[in-house]
């Protein structure tokens, strides 16, 4: 069977299979970070070395937008339910931190 086609099953997928596996039956927890997550990581590292000011605010804002885009993409098109839940949790934490902080 080619790798790009989903496995054929004689039974429905279990909750655990839907939560941890992609449509090919491979467990997926970690993936290479995409451009949005990489941008957030780089912005976070840069912010550790910048004094507080306009440049630090701009880098922080770019990092925040990148993380929001990553989380929305995970919620909408994550490869499994774990990744969708992770994106939703990140969105909730970002929202709570903005409302409470």
Structure description:
With 101 residues, this protein is an all-alpha fold. It has a domain at 34-100. Helix content is 64%, strand content 0%. Helix 3 runs antiparallel to helix 4 (81-100). It is elongated, with a radius of gyration of 18 Å.
Helix content: 55-70%
Topology as a string of helices (H) and strands (E):
HHHH
Total E-strand runs = 0
Fraction in beta strands: under 5%
State the end-to-end CA separation.
Answer: 52 Å
* Individual helix count: 4
Spans with pLDDT under 50 lasting ≥5 residues? none
Please provide a brief summary of the model.
This protein is mainly alpha-helical. The chain contains four helices and no strands.
Main attributes?
mainly alpha, 4 helices, 64% helix, elongated
Q: Topology of this structure?
A:
Layout: H1 15-20, H2 35-49, H3 54-77, H4 81-100
Helix pairs in contact: 2-3, 3-4
């Amino acid at each position: 069977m080619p790798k790009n086609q989903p496995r054929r099953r004689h039974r429905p997928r279990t909750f655990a299979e839907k939560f941890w596996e992609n449509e090919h039956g491979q467990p997926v927890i970690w993936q290479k970070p995409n451009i949005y997550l990489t941008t957030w990581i780089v912005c976070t590292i840069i912010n550790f070395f910048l004094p507080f000011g306009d440049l630090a605010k701009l880098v922080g804002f770019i990092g925040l937008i990148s993380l929001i885009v990553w989380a929305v993409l995970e919620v909408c098109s994550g490869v499994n339910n774990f990744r969708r839940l992770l994106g939703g949790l990140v969105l909730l934490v970002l929202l709570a931190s903005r409302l409470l902080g």
